[in-house]
Each structure stands twice: as C-alpha cells, then as structure tokens.
Amino acid sequence: MGAMGLTEWAYSLSEAMLSEPLPRRWAHSLGVAKCARSLRPILGDDAELLEAAAVLHDVGYSPAIAATGFHPLDGARFLRDQMGADERVIRLVAHHSCALLEAEERGLREELETEFQLERPDLVDALIYCDMTTTPDGTQTTPGERLDEIVKRYGPETIVGRFIQRAAPEIHAAVRRVEQRVAQVSAGSQPM
C-alpha cells in the first residue's frame, strides 16, 4: 500500500478488478462503500476499515481471480495471497452477508471457516446492513426489496436463492441492530 491510505488503496483495487469487466458490480460496490461512510458515527476507529471492506466485498466476482465461483472465498484468498491486505478487511470480505450459509450450500463451509476467522459481530452487522440496503446499481433500498431482488434474479431454487432465503432472518436482524445503534447515537447527539 505504501503511502496510500487503506480506503484509497481499496477503491483503487476494487475499481481495477471490477469497473471494466463488471460495471454493475462496481456500481454496487461504490454504493455499499457510500453506505459504510454514512455509518461513521457508530463505527469510530473502524470507519475506514469498514469502508475499505465495503468497496472490496465483491472483488471475488472479478473474472481475473474467480476460482471456486464463491466470491467471498475467492475475494478473501486474493486479498490475502496476492495483495497482502489488512487481515480484518480480508475477514470481513470472507464472511460478508452471511457467507457461511452460502458456503454450506456450496460445500465450502469448512474451507471458509478454517481459512478465515469471523470479524467482530458489530462490524459484520454493519457490512450486512450496507450490502443489503444497496441495489445492484448502487442506490439505496430496503432489505426486503434487496432480498426479493436477489431471489428473483437468481431463482428461488438456485444455490444463491436457497441461501439468501435461509439467511433472510439473520440479515433482517443485523439491519435492525445497526439501525438501533444509529438511532442511539443520533439520540445522544441531539441538543437538549
């Protein structure tokens, strides 16, 4: 990374990997990162970390590095093995948006669990929130609309369709936890 900051490096890498081969995925990643920036008040010292993970969360879709076809695992391995990225960013990418459940559907749960530890639950929740309130085009949406869109796009009986339906209760719970934290911080900053 050199003199470049973590988020600057992350944006540059994500753009290089996604913008040309997958412009819609790049737009989504930018939207997720924008959402992460909006959570700065609840993230404290981890704001930059979450924004970097947000812009990189889908880097594993890049045709240049897709190996298993499971983007959280491919992205995390790439960031670890080829980029020497921050370990916490790698863990967030590896486990973003209930990835263990999808890994299970794909027969890759043991690999994901063994290779990459989970990051702190509040950061995992925050990344779920950002990913699941951002459309494929990078605009804001509700978690319900996002989940419906994913099922419709992939089909309810596909690996992704089955996984996202299984993950829905945890996704909604994570979004509620983040919204509660935001509300608490906002209430605490209101003048008396």
Automatic annotation (TrEMBL):
InterPro entries (UniProt xref): HD/PDEase_dom, HD_domain, HDIG_dom
The organism's place on the tree of life at top rank: Bacteria
Pfam family, one: HD
UniProt-listed CDD domains: HDc
HD domain boundaries: 25-106
Entry protein name: HDIG domain-containing protein
